[in-house]
Amino acid sequence: MRPLRTPRADAPPTMLDRVRTRVEERFPADLERIRDYLRMPSVSGTGEGIAEVAEATVGLIQDAGGEARTVPTGGHPLVLGHVEGPPGAPTLVRYGMYDVQPAEEPDWTSPPFAAEIRDLLGVGPSIVARGSANSKGCLAGLFIALEILREFDGVPVSLNLMIEGEEELGSPNLATAVEAHRDELEGEAAFDLDLTAGPDGVPELITGCKGLLSLELRAAGGEWGGPGIPLHSSEEAWIANPAWALVHALGTLTDEDEAITVPGLDAAVRPPTEEDEVDLKDLAGAFDLEAHLKESHASRYRLQGSAEELLRALLFRPTMNIDGLVAGYTGPGGKTIIPSEARAVLDVRLVPDMDAGRAADAIRAHLTRQGFGHVDVVVTETYPWAKARAGNVAARAMEASYLALGRTWLPYPLAPWCAPYFVFDRVLGLPWAAGGVGHASGAHGPDEYATLDGLKEHIVGVAAFLLAYAEGGR
């Protein structure tokens, strides 16, 4: 990573300085706008509020000086928008999401859609709300940044926007919709900006992400054995228990160290490129393993090794995870039964060049060989992996924006989570990068939050990225 530039003390104010000052001036009013947006539920899993928030997102784009509309898909609507830059300016494509996870956890300390301002211990003043971190908070920040840039010399690039309402469902209709409207999504590069900084303020620069295969494994009574209805547990002496069948089947998928034991799942794994190896070494040199354990509320890593070895496993190896198990009776008292059905939800994180369909087939074949052909394997969600070249045009502009903000960054050649960036490289054929300054946390859990300072910095960071791209970060 390049050293940070130190501005001269007597240097005249830059455009970024003016943006930063204006963000501070406007923030009390803009904060209320962000809170209003977060108060509107948009739960894609249930459909609650989806139509209303899609239209509200159209309105935010229009308020920022752009044009926008909703277009139907096979599920929730996609918001398409355009913001025109100066003549001859480059055109960028920006992905976003307006949907959120359900907020049914009982551990929220304030209502999830109240968007209360709380002074969080060790964090400071923050908005606590579903969507504050993932990702309506930063999406609102994008539109505010565009408004502020228009107050000055205008937005320095043209933007084509695609903002979906199904990211939390695995983006099942996004690729088809993007293909159908690709003439409205042309550009020379693509990007996404989020609140990626940790509590230390260090943001991420992402040029790849894993894919996802979500599965449900189900063992139910049938000809193989097991009851068709729950039975008194004394019958276990001679009637098979579907819960045991499922547990034993799950036990064949990994060894005692949780390493995957399914033949074929590693067969098509692409090794890191030389550029990726450089980023991995830079990431290992800056990554705080102990801080990550603390943030994860974990005592130790299950693997041993150096930071580089642990991060290599995190980024470049597939994983097999059990998300949840359901079987029988777990309530109070002594209700002793053989359940008639047991289910487990799993996810497999896919790395280049793994294919979700082939991975599912490999799991089915493995279970059959192990004598568990009676355990049904149902694919519930798939997400292709995505990979852009390190140092591509969008990544260079993001680096330049971080330098302008006085920030170092963590380079992720392949993020361990998934996002629908495959539409950038596989559908639109664009180089891309993701990242963003500002701290938020708690996505998918109770008391999700975005810090107020993080939101302010994020708005400035959006402007910094667009300015850097227009000014030669590309």
Quick one: biggest sheet? 8 strands, mixed
What is the average per-residue confidence, as pLDDT, rounded to a whole number? Answer: 95
What's the architecture of the largest domain, going by CATH?
3-Layer(aba) Sandwich
- Taking the alpha carbons of the first and last residues, their distance comes to 17 Å
Strand-residue proportion? 15-25%
Number of helices: 12
Question: How many domains comprise the coordinates?
Answer: 2
Count of DSSP strands: 20
Looking at this structure, what is the CATH superfamily of the largest domain? Zn peptidases
Considering DSSP H and I runs of 4 or more, what fraction of the residues is helical?
25-40%
Segments where pLDDT lies below 50 for 5+ residues? 1-10
What kind of assembly state do the chains in view correspond to?
A: single chain
Write out the strand line-up for the largest beta sheet, numbering strands in chain order.
1-2-6-3-7-18-8-17
Structural class by SSE content: alpha+beta
Q: What overall form do the CA principal axes indicate? A: globular
As a whole number of angstroms, the C-alpha radius of gyration is 24 Å
- Report the top-level CATH class of the largest domain: Alpha Beta
CATH topology of the largest domain: Aminopeptidase
